[in-house]
Design brief:
single chain; about 160 residues; alpha/beta; Double Stranded RNA Binding Domain; 3 helices; 5 strands
């Protein structure tokens, strides 16, 4: 029994030593340990919250005490038909998501001026599996939100690391 526990402990230490981290986790500088998000849809806020929790950080309730302020402007999400079947139903769809954001530090000084992030995804809409395809669209949209969060967090991390040098 003791040897089993010892083996598990050694394996856990080895796994930690190899640099393993949970999927979606970022190595964040101190300025990103507490982030205030100004604006943004509930879905975007949820993805920010998940990404920060995976990286041992959190969303702040107010700009006071936050190391970074992320301001979201003009969030836009659309769906466009790319091709139709012989019956006039959509075969191929394009999902489009765009937002503008800017980054400020805890003293409210701009670190990055207003910049856009755009993401497009296309998928085939099989008319035989309507329920499954509706679910697929929500999964794709969720992945788009995740990609936007990763993009913004990576840019914020690079700016903070460049300012620290």
């Amino acid at each position: 029994m003791l040897t089993n526990k010892l083996i598990i402990l050694v394996l856990a230490l080895l796994l930690n030593a190899c640099g393993y981290h949970m999927r979606g986790a970022f190595e964040l500088p101190d300025g990103l340990k507490k982030v205030y998000l100004e604006g943004g849809s509930p879905q975007l806020r949820d993805q920010f919250n998940r990404a920060l929790k995976a990286s041992s950080a959190k969303l702040a309730d107010s700009p006071e005490g936050a190391g970074m302020i992320i301001r979201i402007f003009g969030e836009d999400s659309t769906r466009r038909v790319l091709s139709l079947s012989s019956r006039g139903r959509s075969n191929e769809l394009e999902l489009y998501y765009r937002l503008d954001y800017e980054l400020a530090n805890s003293a409210n000084a701009l670190l990055i001026d207003r910049q856009p992030v755009e993401i497009r995804r296309e998928y085939f809409n099989n008319q035989q599996d309507i329920i499954a395809k509706d679910n697929e669209e929500s999964v794709i949209r969720n992945e788009m939100y995740q990609q936007v969060v990763r993009t913004i967090m990576n840019r914020a991390r690079v700016i903070l690391e460049a300012n620290a040098k």
